[in-house]
Amino acid sequence: MNLSHGYGQKIPEDEALWSLNEAFEMGYRHFDTATLYGATANERLLGKALKDKRRQLLLASKCGMSIDPESGQRVVNGRPEILRQQCEASLTRLNTDHIDIYYLHRLDRNVPIEESVGALGKLVDEGKIGSVGLSEVSADTLYRAYKEYSVAAVQSEYSLWTRNPEIALLNACKELEIALVAFSPLGRGFLTGAIQVDTPFAEGDMRANMPRFNVDNLPKNLALFKRFSSIAQELNVTPAQLALVWVKAQGSHIVPIPGTCSVAHMRENLSAENLVLDTPSLEKLNGMMTPDKVHGERYSLAQQGDIDTEAFTPA
């Protein structure tokens, strides 16, 4: 996503293609995109970058949320015929005959989840997708969906400072033997130390509208980060690596998918793969940045309206 969408970045195509190739060469094999990202540009980018590597990797994409070409607005539509159309278009853009995991990007509140998931199940039966995924759904929605068709993975934001899956989704995934794919495990850059009080957000950067990053809440959250950073220093790892190893320590069914435009950061993140937290450090971290300590909601009211995930009451 970061190469095409979300943070106001303008990455030239040749640089983006080089970055994706470098990611593959250093060992990344799970690539995640969506119809939404860059208004389909990200799928075209991955289709070009990974065409010759397709059989060596796991490719994931998403449907059910797109950019309307006329208004430029996000549109959530989970109707079966729309999901099929989007899948066919994604296959073409991605230069592939199948997508390994295909997620319903958002729950369409006007369409029963059973209808949307049933449509994705038919695409599995036809060999167009390998398995069904869901994104930003509640445990209740997951249970309903699973009764209709087997779900392989659920994407949800999960990091040290975003614990929403711990309300119910984490246990639901464990019970049903479903992978929890943790997006933004680095807290949208916050847990790397890259965000400071005076950090400017580019035009189009979604963080500019997120309450946790506003002028009232960010200084208070940075005070929490200071302690986190000191633990990383004690353990001789970077804050980003510590954030990733914490997510992995929460369960063997959890798969973090950090995003970055920086090849150096890709290497930094990948080197966290074999790190293991000792019990005292894990216990310290578990007690940090808990929902009662973090200031501000993770989404604005408008952004929150698109998701079905359980939410905490912020401090």
TrEMBL record:
**Residues in domain NADP-dependent oxidoreductase?**
6-286
Keyword set, alphabetical order: Oxidoreductase
User: Pfam families this protein is in?
Assistant: Aldo_ket_red
Protein name, per record: Aldo/keto reductase
Q: Which GO terms describe its cellular component?
A: cytoplasm
Q: Which SUPFAM superfamilies match?
A: NAD(P)-linked oxidoreductase
The record's GO molecular-function terms, alphabetically, read: oxidoreductase activity
InterPro entries documented for this protein: AKR (IPR020471), Aldo-Keto_reductase (IPR050791), NAD(P)_OxRdtase_dom_sf (IPR036812), NADP_OxRdtase_dom (IPR023210)
